[in-house]
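Dear H.,

Thanks for agreeing to be a second pair of eyes. The structure we're designing against is below in token form, covering all 232 positions.
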């Protein structure tokens, strides 16, 4: 039976989904509250992981081990890395990578974790297509892009840092959890997708833009997730 693990880094990224689900049990582990039940007729486990790559990886492993999630979806907000991708738009991951890993001294490309055997973690194509088609139905006014999402333990709000990330990784947006969720899902052979709505432009304007737009952006992404669940 399918059971979808849904991760948001912050409460505002999962609160709408949690409020709509029927909760069967709540399990606390690693200081995270996992709520298991059904949403839109689908078995789900919804959890706030906390911010950053360590929290997100831990959370993903628990979804795999304790709940035996068959699919993992990460919903949330991100900073845009492309001029044409504006605040409110959505990016669905084709793949994700760690922009803050650097072991070039031993011959690895920038971003590649040694001995994992790959630079980027590919998202499940079926989940990607469902996310894109769901976006057209749920948020017809919002553009959904498919592309690479890059992650690191940094909030990007500096044009120079943003340019460095764009030049080296060709990402569509940047955030702080997606690659570690993807990395953990990949190691566990669990299909995943990262869905992010843009809250800021990952430059100096982010400091003021982010607090204004995070809530609406998070809601766009969550609405899309809710819609795609029965189609998985
Ligand atoms: N406001 C929070 C911190 C948010 S950190 C607090 O005060 O505790 C930013 C969150 O949004 C992360 O979960 C990250 O995944 C995402 N995010 C949005 N814009 C980002 C950007 N420009 N750079 C990195 N992460 C970003």
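And this is the sequence the design step returned. I haven't edited it by hand at all.
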């Amino acid at each position: 039976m399918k059971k979808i693990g849904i991760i948001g880094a912050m409460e505002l990224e999962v609160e709408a989904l949690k409020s709509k689900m029927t909760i069967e049990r709540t399990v606390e582990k690693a200081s995270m509250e996992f709520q298991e039940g059904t949403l839109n007729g689908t078995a789900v486990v919804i959890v706030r992981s906390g911010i950053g790559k360590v929290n997100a990886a831990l959370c993903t492993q628990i979804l795999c081990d304790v709940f035996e999630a068959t699919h993992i979806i990460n919903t949330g907000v991100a900073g845009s890395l492309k001029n044409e991708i504006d605040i409110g738009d959505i990016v669905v991951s084709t793949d994700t990578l760690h922009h803050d890993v650097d072991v070039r001294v031993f011959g690895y490309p920038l971003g590649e974790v040694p001995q994992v055997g790959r630079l980027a973690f590919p998202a499940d194509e079926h989940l990607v297509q469902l996310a894109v088609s769901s976006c057209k139905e749920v948020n017809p006014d919002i553009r959904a892009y498919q592309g690479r999402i890059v992650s690191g333990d940094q909030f990007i709000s500096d044009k120079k840092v943003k340019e460095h990330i764009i030049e080296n990784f060709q990402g569509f947006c940047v955030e702080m959890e997606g690659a570690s969720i993807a990395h953990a899902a990949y190691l566990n052979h669990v299909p995943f997708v990262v869905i992010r709505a843009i809250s800021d432009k990952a430059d100096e304007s982010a400091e003021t833009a982010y607090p204004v737009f995070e809530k609406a952006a998070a809601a766009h992404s969550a609405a899309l997730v809710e819609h795609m669940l029965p189609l998985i």
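Two observations from my side: The mean pLDDT is 97. The radius of gyration is 16 Å.

Warmly,
E.
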